[in-house]
Amino acid sequence: MPLRIVRNDITTMRVDAIVNAANESLLGGGGVDGAIHRAAGPELLAECRGLGGCKTGRAKITKGYRLPAKYVIHAVGPVWQGGSHGERELLAGAYRASLELALEHGCQTVAFPLISAGAYGYPKDRALKTAVDVIGDFLLAHDMTVYLVIFDRAAFSIGEKLFADIAAYIDDRYVEQHTSPREEEYRRAAAFAAAPMAMPAGLDEALDRLDESFSQMLLRKIDEKGMTDAQCYKKANIDRKLFSKIRSDVHYRPSKPTAMAFAVALELPLAEARELLEKAGFAFSHASRFDIIVEYFIAHQNYDIFQINEALFAFDQSLLGG
Protein backbone atom coordinates (compact mmCIF):
# COMPACT_ATOMS: atom_id res chain seq x y z
CA MET A 1 0.00 0.00 0.00
CA PRO A 2 1.60 3.33 -1.02
CA LEU A 3 0.58 5.27 2.15
CA ARG A 4 0.11 3.51 5.45
CA ILE A 5 -0.64 5.04 8.82
CA VAL A 6 0.97 2.82 11.45
CA ARG A 7 1.63 2.80 15.17
CA ASN A 8 5.27 1.96 15.69
CA ASP A 9 8.68 3.11 16.92
CA ILE A 10 10.24 4.77 13.89
CA THR A 11 13.79 3.88 14.99
CA THR A 12 13.04 0.15 14.57
CA MET A 13 11.48 0.31 11.11
CA ARG A 14 13.24 -1.56 8.30
CA VAL A 15 12.79 0.94 5.49
CA ASP A 16 15.16 2.65 3.08
CA ALA A 17 14.89 5.95 4.94
CA ILE A 18 13.36 7.34 8.09
CA VAL A 19 12.61 11.02 8.50
CA ASN A 20 13.81 12.85 11.58
CA ALA A 21 11.82 15.79 12.93
CA ALA A 22 14.97 17.86 13.39
CA ASN A 23 15.78 21.39 14.53
CA GLU A 24 17.74 23.89 12.43
CA SER A 25 21.08 22.93 14.00
CA LEU A 26 20.66 19.24 13.05
CA LEU A 27 22.63 18.43 16.22
CA GLY A 28 19.93 16.44 18.01
CA GLY A 29 17.28 17.34 20.52
CA GLY A 30 14.35 15.79 22.34
CA GLY A 31 11.48 13.59 21.23
CA VAL A 32 11.87 11.77 17.92
CA ASP A 33 15.06 13.70 17.16
CA GLY A 34 16.80 12.51 20.30
CA ALA A 35 15.54 8.95 19.92
CA ILE A 36 16.90 8.72 16.37
CA HIS A 37 20.31 10.10 17.37
CA ARG A 38 20.55 7.65 20.27
CA ALA A 39 19.60 4.69 18.11
CA ALA A 40 21.91 5.70 15.22
CA GLY A 41 24.95 6.26 17.43
CA PRO A 42 27.54 9.05 17.59
CA GLU A 43 28.46 8.70 13.92
CA LEU A 44 25.17 10.36 12.98
CA LEU A 45 25.94 13.44 15.05
CA ALA A 46 29.43 13.61 13.55
CA GLU A 47 28.02 13.67 10.01
CA CYS A 48 25.34 16.21 10.98
CA ARG A 49 28.01 18.58 12.28
CA GLY A 50 29.37 18.85 8.75
CA LEU A 51 26.04 19.79 7.17
CA GLY A 52 25.94 23.37 8.39
CA GLY A 53 22.41 23.18 9.72
CA CYS A 54 19.17 23.32 7.74
CA LYS A 55 16.51 25.99 7.20
CA THR A 56 12.93 25.52 8.36
CA GLY A 57 10.83 23.94 5.63
CA ARG A 58 13.81 22.14 4.12
CA ALA A 59 15.59 18.80 4.64
CA LYS A 60 19.03 17.17 4.43
CA ILE A 61 20.06 13.52 4.26
CA THR A 62 22.67 11.40 6.08
CA LYS A 63 23.51 7.73 6.47
CA GLY A 64 21.50 5.67 8.95
CA TYR A 65 24.52 4.12 10.73
CA ARG A 66 23.25 1.79 13.48
CA LEU A 67 19.60 2.16 12.47
CA PRO A 68 17.85 -0.50 10.33
CA ALA A 69 17.24 2.28 7.77
CA LYS A 70 19.92 3.09 5.19
CA TYR A 71 19.31 6.83 5.40
CA VAL A 72 18.05 9.45 7.82
CA ILE A 73 16.36 12.46 6.23
CA HIS A 74 16.45 15.41 8.62
CA ALA A 75 13.39 17.61 8.03
CA VAL A 76 12.96 20.90 9.88
CA GLY A 77 9.33 21.79 10.55
CA PRO A 78 8.00 25.10 11.86
CA VAL A 79 7.18 26.09 15.42
CA TRP A 80 3.43 26.67 15.73
CA GLN A 81 2.66 30.38 16.20
CA GLY A 82 -1.09 30.35 15.75
CA GLY A 83 -1.21 29.46 12.07
CA SER A 84 -0.80 32.94 10.57
CA HIS A 85 2.97 32.86 10.11
CA GLY A 86 3.22 30.51 7.13
CA GLU A 87 3.40 27.39 9.27
CA ARG A 88 1.37 25.25 6.88
CA GLU A 89 3.55 26.17 3.88
CA LEU A 90 6.75 25.51 5.84
CA LEU A 91 5.50 22.15 7.10
CA ALA A 92 4.40 21.12 3.61
CA GLY A 93 7.83 22.21 2.33
CA ALA A 94 9.58 19.99 4.88
CA TYR A 95 7.55 16.96 3.74
CA ARG A 96 8.09 17.70 0.04
CA ALA A 97 11.84 18.26 0.48
CA SER A 98 12.11 14.94 2.34
CA LEU A 99 10.23 13.05 -0.35
CA GLU A 100 12.36 14.60 -3.09
CA LEU A 101 15.56 13.57 -1.28
CA ALA A 102 14.20 10.04 -0.86
CA LEU A 103 13.40 9.87 -4.57
CA GLU A 104 16.82 11.27 -5.49
CA HIS A 105 18.54 8.55 -3.44
CA GLY A 106 16.48 5.71 -4.87
CA CYS A 107 14.42 5.02 -1.74
CA GLN A 108 11.40 2.77 -2.23
CA THR A 109 10.21 2.86 1.39
CA VAL A 110 10.18 5.90 3.70
CA ALA A 111 8.84 6.37 7.24
CA PHE A 112 7.78 9.79 8.56
CA PRO A 113 6.89 10.94 12.06
CA LEU A 114 4.32 13.69 12.46
CA ILE A 115 6.69 16.59 11.95
CA SER A 116 6.27 19.61 14.30
CA ALA A 117 3.45 17.89 16.22
CA GLY A 118 5.49 17.40 19.40
CA ALA A 119 7.46 20.07 21.20
CA TYR A 120 6.92 22.52 18.32
CA GLY A 121 3.22 22.64 19.21
CA TYR A 122 1.67 22.16 15.78
CA PRO A 123 -1.94 20.93 16.34
CA LYS A 124 -1.89 17.21 15.67
CA ASP A 125 -5.00 17.09 13.50
CA ARG A 126 -3.67 19.89 11.28
CA ALA A 127 -0.19 18.34 11.19
CA LEU A 128 -1.72 15.04 10.11
CA LYS A 129 -3.83 16.65 7.38
CA THR A 130 -0.83 18.48 5.95
CA ALA A 131 1.24 15.29 6.00
CA VAL A 132 -1.47 13.25 4.28
CA ASP A 133 -2.17 15.97 1.68
CA VAL A 134 1.48 16.39 0.68
CA ILE A 135 2.37 12.70 0.73
CA GLY A 136 -0.83 11.81 -1.14
CA ASP A 137 -0.09 14.34 -3.90
CA PHE A 138 3.47 13.05 -4.20
CA LEU A 139 2.34 9.43 -4.50
CA LEU A 140 0.01 10.28 -7.37
CA ALA A 141 3.14 11.02 -9.41
CA HIS A 142 5.69 8.58 -7.95
CA ASP A 143 5.87 4.92 -6.97
CA MET A 144 6.97 4.72 -3.35
CA THR A 145 5.65 3.22 -0.12
CA VAL A 146 5.38 5.80 2.66
CA TYR A 147 4.64 5.06 6.31
CA LEU A 148 3.25 7.78 8.55
CA VAL A 149 4.29 6.62 12.00
CA ILE A 150 2.09 7.49 14.97
CA PHE A 151 3.89 6.48 18.16
CA ASP A 152 0.88 6.83 20.46
CA ARG A 153 -2.72 6.41 19.30
CA ALA A 154 -3.84 8.67 22.15
CA ALA A 155 -1.88 11.47 20.50
CA PHE A 156 -3.80 10.98 17.25
CA SER A 157 -6.89 13.01 16.49
CA ILE A 158 -9.04 13.63 13.46
CA GLY A 159 -11.33 16.63 13.50
CA GLU A 160 -13.75 16.52 16.42
CA LYS A 161 -16.84 17.16 14.27
CA LEU A 162 -15.89 14.49 11.74
CA PHE A 163 -15.19 12.02 14.55
CA ALA A 164 -18.55 12.79 16.16
CA ASP A 165 -20.43 12.52 12.84
CA ILE A 166 -18.87 9.14 12.05
CA ALA A 167 -19.51 7.88 15.58
CA ALA A 168 -23.18 8.88 15.27
CA TYR A 169 -23.41 7.19 11.85
CA ILE A 170 -21.98 3.99 13.34
CA ASP A 171 -24.38 4.11 16.30
CA ASP A 172 -27.37 4.51 13.99
CA ARG A 173 -26.40 1.53 11.84
CA TYR A 174 -24.33 -0.87 13.88
CA VAL A 175 -26.46 -4.02 13.89
CA GLU A 176 -24.87 -5.66 16.91
CA GLN A 177 -25.84 -2.73 19.15
CA HIS A 178 -29.51 -2.98 18.22
CA THR A 179 -30.15 -6.63 17.35
CA SER A 180 -29.40 -9.83 19.20
CA PRO A 181 -27.66 -12.60 17.18
CA ARG A 182 -30.82 -14.75 17.29
CA GLU A 183 -33.02 -11.87 16.09
CA GLU A 184 -30.60 -11.09 13.27
CA GLU A 185 -30.46 -14.74 12.19
CA TYR A 186 -34.28 -14.88 12.15
CA ARG A 187 -34.51 -11.64 10.16
CA ARG A 188 -32.09 -12.89 7.51
CA ALA A 189 -33.85 -16.27 7.24
CA ALA A 190 -37.22 -14.57 6.81
CA ALA A 191 -35.86 -12.26 4.12
CA PHE A 192 -34.32 -15.21 2.28
CA ALA A 193 -37.57 -17.19 2.43
CA ALA A 194 -39.57 -14.24 1.09
CA ALA A 195 -37.23 -13.64 -1.87
CA PRO A 196 -38.50 -15.06 -5.19
CA MET A 197 -36.33 -17.86 -6.59
CA ALA A 198 -36.32 -17.75 -10.39
CA MET A 199 -34.59 -20.93 -11.57
CA PRO A 200 -33.07 -20.93 -15.07
CA ALA A 201 -34.93 -23.09 -17.58
CA GLY A 202 -31.76 -24.78 -18.80
CA LEU A 203 -27.98 -24.70 -19.04
CA ASP A 204 -27.94 -22.15 -21.87
CA GLU A 205 -30.03 -19.70 -19.84
CA ALA A 206 -27.83 -20.25 -16.79
CA LEU A 207 -24.71 -19.55 -18.83
CA ASP A 208 -26.30 -16.43 -20.27
CA ARG A 209 -26.69 -15.12 -16.75
CA LEU A 210 -22.98 -15.29 -16.07
CA ASP A 211 -21.92 -11.67 -15.86
CA GLU A 212 -18.61 -9.88 -15.72
CA SER A 213 -16.02 -10.58 -13.03
CA PHE A 214 -14.61 -8.05 -10.57
CA SER A 215 -11.61 -7.49 -12.84
CA GLN A 216 -13.79 -6.96 -15.92
CA MET A 217 -16.13 -4.56 -14.12
CA LEU A 218 -13.21 -2.63 -12.66
CA LEU A 219 -11.53 -2.17 -16.04
CA ARG A 220 -14.83 -1.18 -17.64
CA LYS A 221 -15.46 1.41 -14.92
CA ILE A 222 -11.96 2.83 -15.36
CA ASP A 223 -12.64 3.30 -19.09
CA GLU A 224 -16.05 4.82 -18.43
CA LYS A 225 -14.52 7.33 -16.01
CA GLY A 226 -11.88 8.28 -18.59
CA MET A 227 -9.11 7.37 -16.14
CA THR A 228 -5.77 5.74 -16.83
CA ASP A 229 -4.82 2.60 -14.93
CA ALA A 230 -2.17 4.54 -13.00
CA GLN A 231 -4.62 7.27 -12.00
CA CYS A 232 -6.99 4.66 -10.67
CA TYR A 233 -4.60 2.51 -8.65
CA LYS A 234 -2.84 5.54 -7.20
CA LYS A 235 -6.16 7.09 -6.13
CA ALA A 236 -7.03 3.71 -4.62
CA ASN A 237 -3.76 3.66 -2.64
CA ILE A 238 -2.96 0.36 -4.38
CA ASP A 239 0.47 -0.92 -5.34
CA ARG A 240 1.15 -1.12 -9.09
CA LYS A 241 2.14 -4.80 -8.86
CA LEU A 242 -1.17 -5.71 -7.26
CA PHE A 243 -3.08 -3.84 -9.94
CA SER A 244 -1.12 -5.74 -12.62
CA LYS A 245 -2.30 -9.01 -11.07
CA ILE A 246 -5.91 -7.83 -11.15
CA ARG A 247 -5.61 -6.70 -14.78
CA SER A 248 -3.94 -9.91 -15.98
CA ASP A 249 -6.26 -12.35 -14.18
CA VAL A 250 -9.93 -12.06 -15.10
CA HIS A 251 -10.84 -14.26 -12.11
CA TYR A 252 -8.74 -12.39 -9.53
CA ARG A 253 -10.50 -12.10 -6.16
CA PRO A 254 -9.28 -9.04 -4.22
CA SER A 255 -9.50 -8.52 -0.49
CA LYS A 256 -12.39 -6.45 0.82
CA PRO A 257 -10.22 -3.36 1.60
CA THR A 258 -8.83 -3.52 -1.96
CA ALA A 259 -12.28 -3.76 -3.55
CA MET A 260 -13.55 -0.89 -1.40
CA ALA A 261 -10.49 1.18 -2.28
CA PHE A 262 -11.28 0.89 -5.99
CA ALA A 263 -14.91 1.89 -5.37
CA VAL A 264 -13.58 5.02 -3.65
CA ALA A 265 -11.01 5.74 -6.37
CA LEU A 266 -13.70 5.51 -9.05
CA GLU A 267 -15.97 7.79 -6.97
CA LEU A 268 -18.86 5.37 -7.34
CA PRO A 269 -22.22 6.18 -5.77
CA LEU A 270 -23.25 3.80 -3.01
CA ALA A 271 -25.36 1.51 -5.23
CA GLU A 272 -22.53 1.05 -7.73
CA ALA A 273 -19.99 0.61 -4.92
CA ARG A 274 -22.13 -2.22 -3.55
CA GLU A 275 -22.27 -3.79 -7.01
CA LEU A 276 -18.49 -3.68 -7.42
CA LEU A 277 -18.04 -5.15 -3.96
CA GLU A 278 -20.43 -7.99 -4.81
CA LYS A 279 -18.26 -8.91 -7.80
CA ALA A 280 -15.46 -9.62 -5.34
CA GLY A 281 -17.78 -11.72 -3.17
CA PHE A 282 -18.39 -9.14 -0.46
CA ALA A 283 -21.13 -6.82 0.77
CA PHE A 284 -21.40 -3.77 3.01
CA SER A 285 -22.34 -5.04 6.46
CA HIS A 286 -23.87 -3.00 9.26
CA ALA A 287 -22.32 -5.47 11.69
CA SER A 288 -18.88 -4.10 10.76
CA ARG A 289 -17.58 -0.70 11.89
CA PHE A 290 -15.05 -0.84 9.02
CA ASP A 291 -17.86 -1.16 6.46
CA ILE A 292 -19.99 1.53 8.07
CA ILE A 293 -17.15 4.07 8.12
CA VAL A 294 -16.40 3.54 4.42
CA GLU A 295 -20.12 3.68 3.66
CA TYR A 296 -20.34 6.99 5.57
CA PHE A 297 -17.74 8.63 3.30
CA ILE A 298 -19.25 7.26 0.09
CA ALA A 299 -22.75 8.32 1.17
CA HIS A 300 -21.38 11.83 1.82
CA GLN A 301 -19.55 11.81 -1.55
CA ASN A 302 -16.18 12.22 0.14
CA TYR A 303 -13.78 10.10 -1.90
CA ASP A 304 -10.50 11.22 -0.35
CA ILE A 305 -8.99 7.82 0.45
CA PHE A 306 -6.38 9.29 2.75
CA GLN A 307 -9.00 11.05 4.86
CA ILE A 308 -10.99 7.82 4.95
CA ASN A 309 -7.89 6.00 6.19
CA GLU A 310 -7.36 8.68 8.84
CA ALA A 311 -10.86 7.97 10.13
CA LEU A 312 -10.39 4.18 9.96
CA PHE A 313 -7.14 4.52 11.92
CA ALA A 314 -8.85 6.71 14.53
CA PHE A 315 -11.51 4.03 15.03
CA ASP A 316 -8.86 1.26 15.19
CA GLN A 317 -9.88 -0.37 11.89
CA SER A 318 -7.95 -1.78 8.94
CA LEU A 319 -7.05 0.72 6.20
CA LEU A 320 -8.14 0.81 2.58
CA GLY A 321 -5.70 -0.28 -0.08
CA GLY A 322 -3.80 -3.32 -1.26
Describe this structure as you would to a colleague:
Helix 5 packs across helix 14, helix 10 packs across helix 12 and helix 12 (256-265) packs antiparallel against helix 13. With 322 residues, this protein is α/β, with parallel strands linked by helices. Strand 3 and strand 4 form a beta hairpin. The protein is elongated and about 80 Å long. It contains 15 helices and 6 strands. The N and C termini lie close together (5 Å). A 6-stranded mixed β-sheet has the order 1-6-5-2-4-3, with helices on both faces. This is O-acetyl-ADP-ribose deacetylase. Pfam families: Macro. InterPro entries: Macro_dom, Macro_dom-like.
Task: Chart the SSEs and their pairings.
Elements: E1 3-6, E2 17-22, H1 31-40, H2 42-49, E3 59-63, E4 71-76, H3 87-104, E5 109-112, H4 124-141, E6 145-149, H5 160-173, H6 175-178, H7 181-194, H8 203-208, H9 214-224, H10 229-235, H11 240-248, H12 256-265, H13 270-279, H14 289-299, H15 305-314
Parallel strand pairs: 1-6, 2-4, 2-5, 5-6
Antiparallel strand pairs: 3-4
Helix pairs in contact: 3-4, 5-14, 9-13, 10-12, 12-13
